[in-house]
Amino acid sequence: MASDIDKSTFDRYWQLFANPMLVNPTNQISLELKTLDSPLNWQEVFGNDRLVEIEVGSGKGRFLKESAQRNPDINYVGIERASKYFEKSCERLAKHNITTARLVYCDAPYFLYRCVADQSVSAFHIYFPDPWPKKRHRKRRIFNNSIWISELVRTLNNKLGEIYIATDYKTYFWEIRELFDCHPSFEYHPDKSTETNYIPTSFEIKYRKQGLPIYRAVYAKL
Ligand SMILES: C[S@@+](CC[C@H](N)C(=O)[O-])C[C@H]1O[C@@H](n2cnc3c(N)ncnc32)[C@H](O)[C@@H]1O
Q1: Which mutation among 14, 64, 203, 212 tests ligand 1's pocket best, with the greatest number of atoms within 8 A of CB?
Q2: Which residues does a 6 A CB cutoff place in the pocket of ligand 1?
Q3: Residue-range definition of the domain harbouring residue 186
Q4: What CATH number is attached to the domain comprising 96?
Q5: Residues 9-64 pLDDT 10s
Q6: What is the count of structural domains for the chain?
Q7: pTM: predicted TM-score of the whole model, two decimal places
Q8: Does 1 map to a domain?
Q9: Which of 23, 41, 66, 150 pairs as cysteine with 30 (C-beta 3.0–4.6 A)?
């Protein structure tokens, strides 16, 4: 995705993304997102009015599975744009009969922009976002897109909204920190930015085994 694109280009890219969908992994019922003419109603999606937390780039679904098992009173949504990982996470959640999670096959900024209602998300979990280390690729970083940041602000709940971030990539981490520290809608929570608040993702387990440091931050919406 190009960095800092305007909204009409954004709309065009949405048209190009093949078959974005929301799936309930336990019954395989799927909703084609391009057929929506208004944002998703989470109450209809989950059949209850519990809080909704979204994981961005949910990979093979480890975090979603563990979190859903530990927190049965929360609804989870994982967004994944790689079909291989999307399918793997569907299988994982189905195997463990996780009824409180849904998976979205889509690019996360487009999904928020097109399908998520104002203030309808209580937390975002963004773990090990692709760092695109080559200089010429950095524009692809999700946090380099201003529409992404404004969509996080718009969709997060004003009273409860939190963003959880973790990465092994130090320079990217400090760029993200700077972005949020300078943003008037967010406040850093050092007490929450600790290991104990996190359920390790597959990437976290891998990097820990390699002895790499993990950088974390939690921000609350003001
Ligand atoms: C480095 S992996 C981390 C996976 C998982 N969060 C973990 O910690 O194990 C990044 C994942 O984010 C997905 N991803 C990257 N950009 C995305 C985007 N814009 N929308 C949805 N998924 C994205 C990739 O396909 C990949 O599965």
Answers
A1: 203
A2: 57, 59, 79-82, 85, 107-108, 127-128, 130, 142, 201-204
A3: 7-221
A4: 3.40.50.150
A5: 777 777 778 899 999 999 999 999 999 999 999 999 999 999 999 999 999 999 99
A6: 1
A7: 0.95
A8: no
A9: 23
